[in-house]
Every structure is written in structure tokens, then in C-alpha cells.
TrEMBL record:
The chain crosses the membrane at residues 296-316, 345-366, 386-410, 431-449, 461-485, 506-528, 738-761, 794-816, 828-850. Keywords: Cell membrane, Membrane, Transmembrane, Transmembrane helix. This is Putative ABC transport system permease protein. Residues 137-159 have a biased composition (Low complexity). Its main location: membrane. It comes from Pseudoduganella namucuonensis. It comes from the Bacteria. The keyword Transferase does not apply.
Length: 868
């Protein structure tokens, strides 16, 4: 049987019967493998870059010293570690009347810091060279650049659990300070500052710190010292609040195993004050961005897989219809049904393996060419491609071939000898329908495996199924409606076109649905993709606030506002510190001990606003009415869910010793990703009257504006300045990478979509050839047939284009609303684009069809064209 199958495969290849099927398989596997290789490497690079925000692959933080045994456990797992201790303290410079001091965020680091990312420093001047930039980078914390210092012997005192290996961090007796403290203390490189009981020589100025996050111990200007110098400062007294951190980096599986090991011990010990973080965590600084980026890339991969499935299904159906005579001959020569089926299965297996191997090689070559082409736009030193994308793509091709090519073969094999010779087919039997269901289930499983996103994969599969059924229903209604306009003013070409479409409703509907599905995917990745990416970019604009100023006293408000006018005159928001005491007279948090503990241990920042804040959306209730004499409060939606607060409840606060009682009159949903100042509790003017407050402002400082910020900090030492420009730059870098990746992957999806369109048009070519031959034999002119086919193609294309536009609009709204959580606006241009694209594709297919069909003599066409 194998020799017979091999001979049939070679014969079909020479006859061109396998070209469309093999092309569909190669393109689909190439697209999926290219998507897999590229996204795997891009995701790896983005995740690697995101670890810079933790300075490690894994971060464990606690308010108490961490267990030193964890370091030894990590070392046994071939992991690198470093440790930090952060706290709020005072630093001073100068003597006598010229002495100045400032509140600082002190950070003691071990020699391995940072394990990932880079500390960017301004180095000291020497006789031979001017001041230089120094970069203490990742990978064992190696320091590069002029004058880079090392500290291979830093101790692990004061609860800093760390590995003694590595290099980087301040040398003993020295300190690194940031630009804000340099300006505030007027203490540059070479000056001496005092922290606690110890004096330090300033040797570097920190210009960028990768893992500096928004927290109470990080709000003030930075002083960084060696961990071994921390005990000498005398600051680690009992009861001092400090944040201890253990940084871990190494091989991915080893890091994950260590995380699970530590998590199990924390869960067993009920250590609620400890936290384990990775760069991909949903609540980390980059976790949400990485999740959304993966969603965009997964969307492209899913649409490519969908189009590949449609192309293979149509190519397999065309193969089946063109092999009726061959199957009839084999059955008449004595082969049994199982033997005929086995021959075709072997042939399809050979095609699948050959097409899959060629597709994987083409996909790898394509992604390699792209990397060379976009070398300057992509992150440097991308991780190498793994074997999993190749295995996934090859398996995907075989699954697609089995799931969508077997049902037509089963339908063919189940037909009797006589009906095969007459080329008539019964309705699909139970086994054929079961094969279709199995193929759909296998394909859905493939999508989930390919993307790793159950929600997105299931939603995309369900959306395509719903779109296909909806398109089929709309196409059927369209055919029924065409019967009402069949007269067409008596034009014979119009009547020929309508009659041809209604004579074979199944083929007409299949062609319309295929065109509509292919166009929908392409529209979703052109117009809609652009809208989604634009909305994402709008969430992190280039001028997004990168500095946050706090603790502005009321008597400083006007002066600070005047000095901030050069940064766009950002609004100043009131900060009212208060503790939530009761809800309707009952303790806040109710019976939930965790909520009660959180309320007791933390104060909230309340604010006041006359208008609804720009990053908030009102979900229930009404906003404050001007002139209202009742004390009112608006609450964040998350707080309402956590604490069971509802409209009409009365909340009692302690505001610096002053009581406050206010009624909940509205609930808001805050978009924290908008990076605008937002507050969980917002008071109306009546409730906020007379309460102690400070002010804060978020604003964008362009490059070169740091000196003005430094002067502001020096003139007002009590202000707290937080610079998170590094985070904004990382978000923009991820956006750029994802944009490039999506643009590239769209090329493969476009190829798959064009193949679907070609398969949809080529699938009806044989039937058109037969029909044209009959009409020409009956006296129809070439011109009449040409116009009739043009009418038919244009009607099909227009209907498919409108359906595709509707599907793309609905799909874009659903993706923006439920998957990416982005704003969405309906675009009328999308409908015009869909209509024009459908007509253009149909016109191209019509030209090909007219050229191939009408150029054949009627007698030759009748002999060569199979009847369906």
C-alpha cells in the first residue's frame, strides 16, 4: 500500500493536484513557526529586560531580616544572589553654619548587586580624563567603565542575606548618591556626607537605578552604601523600619523551583509580611505591560492559525472533489474502502511531513531575515530560539491537515461505486460529522497550546465559529434576497450571474464565508490592530509623567506651582492622610482579619476634587453637586468590593486626630495605567474643609531638565521627589518591540490570508469551467459569460467585504473591551475598507477565472472539468 500511495503522491504532484494543498500547509506552518520563533525570542527579550526593574529574576522582600540559609539553598541550585536593605534616614554635608541635611532613602547593597539591569553612574574625574559615565550592569553585577569599583568582600551583617561573590556596588567607606541629593546637599563627587554615625566619601552619582520602585522607603533622594558599612552607621537599632530584600538570578527552571521552594515555606509559616515577585507578575511594574504585549502577539498567532485552517480545509475539499474519478477507479479495480482510505491517508501523511518540514525551515529563515532587517530596532542579544516553536508548528500543520482534510476523505470513501462514477455525493454521515467535530476540538487545543492563553484562545476560536455561522446565515439570506432582483432590468448577464449563484447555493455560501473570514482576519490585523496599538501607546504617551513631587506644604503651593510651570503647569492635588475607622459604625474590614490588619496598619491618601478625575470613570452614584452642604465621599471600585462598601454608607476616618464622617455618594473605576494622580477616596469641598493637607504633583521632565528639579529640591529640602523615568523608558521600549513584532508577523498572516482568498476562488474554478462550457455550447457568447462572471464575483466580494467589516468591528470591540482593557471607537472607514477589499479580491479572482475558463474551448472544458 505504501508503494501505491507513493506513486499516487508523485503522480498528483506532477499533475498539480497537490500544489494548493501543499502551499497551504507550507504557508501555515511557516507562518506559525515564524510567529513561534519570533515571539519566543521577543518575549524572552522583553522578560529579560523587564527583570531590570527587579534587578533580578526573583525578588523576596520582608520587613524583617531574611533567613541566611536561603542563600545557601540558592547557591546549591547554581543561582546567584545579592541582598539589599532600604530605610529612611538623614544625610548631612558641610560643617558649622554651612551644614545642610536632608531626608534620604538609604540603600545598603552587597557586592553582587544588581543581578539584572544596570546602575548608570557618573564617575569621578582624573588628571588624565574628564568625568566619565560608569555602568554597573547585570550578569554577576560586573562593573564596566572608567573607575568602576568592586567590593568582593562585603559582609552580610544587618540582616542582608547575600552571596559574597560578584562585583559592583560602592566600595567600603564610600557612597553613591543620586542627582537630587547632589543638588540638595551641594555635595558632588569627592565630597563627604554623614549618614548616622559614619562619614562616607561620595565617589559616584547615580543617574539611573533599575529597581527603584514607588514605596515609602524609596521616595526620598538616594544614598547607596556597601552592606558591610551599615552596622557602623548605628541605624539598625531595634524597632527601626527597614525593607530587606533577597535578589536571585539564574537559569529559568532553577529560579522557578527556588520560588516554589520558598513559597511553600512562607505559606507553611504564614509569613504575611513577605512578598515574592518576578518580572512577569501581574501586579509588578512591568507585569501588566508584558501580559498585554503577549496578548497582542498571541492574537497575531491565533489569526494566522485560523487562516491556515481555512486554507487547508478548502484545499483538501478541492483535492477530494478532483479525485472522485481516481477513487472510483481504485474501487472498481478491487480495492476495498479501507484500502482506498489507507492509500489517501499515507499520501496525506507524506504531504504533511514534507510540507511541515519545509514550513519550519521557511519560518526559521524568515524570522532570521527579519532579525537582520530590524537589527537596530530590536533589543540586543536576543535569546536563542528554542525547539518548542518548531515542534508546535510541525504538530500544528499535522493537526490542521488531519482535522480538516480527513472529513472530506471520509465523505469520499463512504460513497458507493456507482455514485462515485456518477460523481454524486450523499449528505455527510455521522463519522464525517464526528471527524469535523474532532478536527475542531483538536484545532482549539492547538490554539490553547500555541498561545498559552486559555481565555484568548477559547475566545478567538468561539469568535471564529460564531463569525462563520453568522456569515453563512447572512450569505444564505443574501442568496434568497437575490431572487427578488433576478430580473435586473432584463440584462441577460445579470440573470446568468444570479442563476449561477442560486444553482449551487452551497458553493456560493462556502466561497462567501471563506472570503469573509479571510478578509475579517486581515482587517482585524490592519485597521483594528492599528487602533489597538494606538490606544495602548496613548496609555503611555511620550510625555507621560516621570517625576512625582510630594509633601508640598500649603504655604509653598503657589511658589511650587509657579516653578512647575516650565513643566507644563501640572495640577497640584491635595493629600489628606487619614485612617479608615468604621463603615456604618462597624470596624472597617468586618470579620476579615486580613482586611482588618491592612486597615489598622495603613493610612490612606484622601484628596478633594470638584470635577471627576481624568483617570476615573463613574460606575454608580452621582458626582459631587456644587454647593452641597453634606459631607460626601467617592470611593474606588476595588475598595468597594474588598470592604463591602455600598452607596449610602457612612465612612468614619481619623485625619491627624480630627474626626471625619462622610457619606458614600459615588463609586469610581480608576485606570491606574493612565499614570495620572488618582486617589482611592475623594472628598467634596464640604467634607475636606479645615482638614490638614499637603499637595503633590506628577509631571514630565524632559532630558536636560534635571538641574531645575535639583534646584527645587535644594531650595525646599522638605519636598519629596520620586523619579521613575527608568520605568517609563522601559515601557516605551516594550511598546516599540511589540509594534515591530506585530508589524512583522502581519506579513505572514497576510500571506495566509491571501492563500485563503486564492483557495476560495480556485475552489469554484472547475465548476465555473463546466458551467461556462455548457452555456457556450448552448449559444451564450463569450461577452455574456464574461459579464455574468464579473457580476457574480463582484456580488460575492461586496457581500463578503461587508460581512468581514462587521466581524472585524465586533472582534475589535470585544478584544479592546474584554481582553486588552483599552478604549475603543467604531470606525466607519473600516466598513469602506472591507467593501473595497472584498470587491478588489473578487475582481482579482474574476480576472483569473475569466482568463482560465473562457479561454478553453467548450468541448475541451467539458472533457476536462469534473462535475460536482
Amino acid at each position: 500500500m505504501f508503494k501505491l500511495a507513493l506513486k499516487m503522491t508523485l503522480r498528483d504532484w506532477r499533475a498539480g493536484e497537490l500544489h494548493l494543498l501543499l502551499a497551504a500547509l507550507v504557508v501555515s506552518v511557516a507562518a506559525l513557526s515564524a510567529v513561534g520563533f519570533f515571539t519566543d525570542r521577543i518575549r524572552g527579550a522583553m522578560l529579560r529586560d523587564a527583570t531590570q526593574l527587579l534587578a533580578a529574576d526573583l525578588l523576596i522582600t520582608s520587613d524583617a531580616p531574611l533567613d541566611p540559609a536561603w542563600v545557601e539553598t540558592a547557591r546549591r541550585r547554581d543561582l546567584r544572589t545579592a541582598g539589599t536593605v532600604s530605610m529612611v534616614s538623614m544625610a548631612g554635608a558641610g560643617e558649622g553654619d554651612g551644614a545642610v541635611s536632608s531626608l534620604v532613602s538609604l540603600k545598603a547593597v552587597t557586592s553582587g548587586y544588581p543581578l539584572r539591569g544596570a546602575l548608570q553612574l557618573r564617575g569621578a574625574a582624573t588628571d588624565a580624563a574628564p568625568p566619565t559615565d560608569v555602568r554597573v550592569s547585570s550578569d554577576a553585577g560586573a562593573a564596566t567603565g572608567a573607575g568602576a569599583s568592586t567590593d568582593a568582600g562585603a559582609s552580610t551583617d544587618a540582616g542582608v542575606a547575600a552571596d559574597a561573590g560578584g562585583a559592583g556596588g560602592p566600595a567600603p567607606g564610600t557612597a553613591w548618591i543620586d542627582t537630587a541629593l547632589e543638588a540638595r546637599l551641594n555635595a558632588g563627587i569627592g565630597a563627604r556626607i554623614r549618614v548616622g554615625d559614619r562619614a562616607f566619601l561620595v565617589t559616584r552619582v547615580i543617574t539611573s537605578e533599575p529597581d527603584r520602585r514607588f514605596s515609602p522607603v524609596n521616595l526620598s533622594p538616594r544614598v547607596m552604601i556597601a552592606a558591610g558599612d551599615l552596622p557602623a552607621t548605628g541605624l539598625m537599632a531595634p524597632g527601626v523600619r527597614a525593607r530587606h530584600a533577597l535578589l536571585v538570578a539564574g537559569n529559568g527552571p532553577a529560579v522557578e523551583a527556588f520560588r516554589l521552594h520558598i513559597k511553600a515555606r512562607l505559606d507553611a509559616a504564614n509569613a504575611g509580611n513577605m512578598r515574592i515577585q518576578t518580572a512577569s507578575d501581574r501586579d509588578s511594574e512591568m507585569g501588566d505591560t508584558l501580559e498585554r504585549a503577549s496578548g497582542f502577539l498571541s492574537l497575531v498567532s491565533l489569526l494566522t492559525a485560523m487562516l491556515a485552517a481555512v486554507a487547508i480545509a478548502m484545499a483538501a475539499r478541492r483535492y477530494m472533489l478532483r479525485h472522485v474519478d481516481a477513487c472510483a477507479m481504485l474501487r472498481c479495480l478491487g480495492l476495498r474502502q479501507r484500502q482506498v482510505m489507507r492509500v489517501h491517508l499515507i499520501e496525506f501523511a507524506l504531504v504533511g511531513l514534507a510540507g511541515g518540514a519545509v514550513g519550519v525551515l521557511a519560518g526559521y529563515a524568515g524570522h532570521s531575515l527579519l532579525l537582520r532587517w530590524l537589527e537596530g530596532l530590536l533589543p540586543a542579544a536576543l535569546p536563542p530560539a528554542g525547539w518548542l516553536p518548531a515542534a508546535q508548528a510541525l504538530a500544528a500543520g499535522l493537526i490542521l491537515l488531519a482535522g480538516f482534510a480527513l472529513p472530506p476523505l471520509l465523505q469520499l470513501a463512504n460513497v458507493s461505486h456507482a455514485r462515485l462514477l456518477r460523481r454524486e455525493h450523499d449528505a455527510p454521515r455521522g463519522a464525517t460529522l464526528a471527524a469535523f467535530a474532532l478536527g475542531g476540538a483538536m484545532f482549539t487545543g492547538l490554539l490553547l497550546w500555541q498561545t498559552g492563553d486559555v481565555k484568548l484562545g477559547a475566545a478567538t476560536a468561539a469568535g471564529f465559529l460564531a463569525a462563520g455561522l453568522s456569515f453563512a446565515g447572512a450569505a444564505w439570506l443574501g442568496l434568497r434576497a437575490l431572487a427578488l432582483v433576478r430580473g435586473g432590468g432584463g440584462h441577460p448577464a445579470w440573470r446568468f450571474a444570479i442563476t449561477a449563484m442560486r444553482r449551487h447555493p452551497g458553493a456560493s455560501i462556502a466561497q462567501t464565508v471563506s472570503l469573509a473570514v479571510g478578509l475579517m482576519a486581515l482587517l482585524l490585523l490592519t485597521v483594528v490592530r492599528g487602533d489597538l496599538m494606538a490606544a495602548w501607546r496613548a496609555a503611555v504617551p511620550p510625555d507621560a509623567p516621570n517625576h512625582y513631587l510630594m509633601n508640598i506644604a500649603p504655604d509653598q503651593r503657589d511658589e511650587i506651582a509657579q516653578r512647575l510651570r516650565q513643566f507644563g503647569q501640572p495640577p497640584l492635588h491635595a493629600n489628606i492622610r487619614g485612617r479608615l475607622l468604621t463603615v456604618n459604625g462597624k470596624p472597617a474590614g468586618g470579620d476579615n482579619k486580613d482586611y482588618r490588619r491592612a486597615v489598622d496598619a495603613n493610612d490612606f491618601d484622601l484628596s478633594t476634587a470638584a470635577a471627576l478625575p481624568p483617570a476615573s470613570t463613574l460606575t454608580s452614584g452621582t458626582w459631587f453637586q456644587p454647593g452641597s452642604r453634606e459631607r460626601e465621599i467617592s470611593v474606588d471600585e476595588a475598595m468597594v468590593k474588598d470592604f463591602g462598601i455600598k452607596l449610602g454608607d457612612r465612612l468614619a476616618f481619623d485625619i491627624g486626630g480630627l474626626p471625619l464622617d462622610a457619606k458614600v455618594t459615588s463609586v469610581r473605576k480608576i485606570d491606574w495605567r493612565a499614570r495620572k494622580a488618582s486617589f482611592v477616596f475623594v472628598l467634596n469641598d464640604t467634607a475636606a474643609a479645615g482638614l490638614p493637607r499637603t499637595y503633590s504633583a506628577g509631571f514630565h521632565v524632559p532630558e536636560g531638565g534635571e538641574h531645575a528639579i535639583g534646584r527645587l529640591s535644594r531650595d525646599h529640602p522638605g519636598l519629596t521627589m520620586f523619579n521613575f523615568g527608568f520605568l517609563i523608558r522601559q515601557l516605551h521600549a516594550v511598546l516599540a518591540q511589540v509594534s515591530v513584532a506585530v508589524e512583522f508577523l502581519f506579513l505572514f498572516t497576510l500571506a495566509a490570508g491571501l492563500l485563503v482568498l486564492y483557495a476560495a476562488l480556485a475552489g469554484s474554478q472547475d465548476a465555473r469551467m463546466r458551467q461556462a462550457a455548457l452555456l457556450r455550447a448552448l449559444g451564450a457568447t463569450r461577452g455574456q459569460l464574461s459579464r455574468a462572471q464579473w457580476f457574480e464575483h463582484l456580488l460575492t466580494g461586496a457581500l463578503a467585504g461587508l460581512l468581514a467589516a462587521g466581524g472585524a468591528s465586533a472582534g475589535g470591540w470585544a478584544l479592546a473591551r474584554f481582553t486588552f482593557d483599552l478604549p475603543w471607537s467604531w470606525s466607519p472607514q473600516l466598513w469602506l475598507a472591507g467593501l473595497l477589499a472584498g470587491v478588489a479580491c473578487a475582481a482579482a479572482g474574476g480576472w483569473l477565472g475569466l482568463r482560465n475558463v473562457l479561454n478553453h474551448p467548450p468541448l475541451l472544458a467539458l472533457r476536462q472539468s469534473p462535475t460536482h
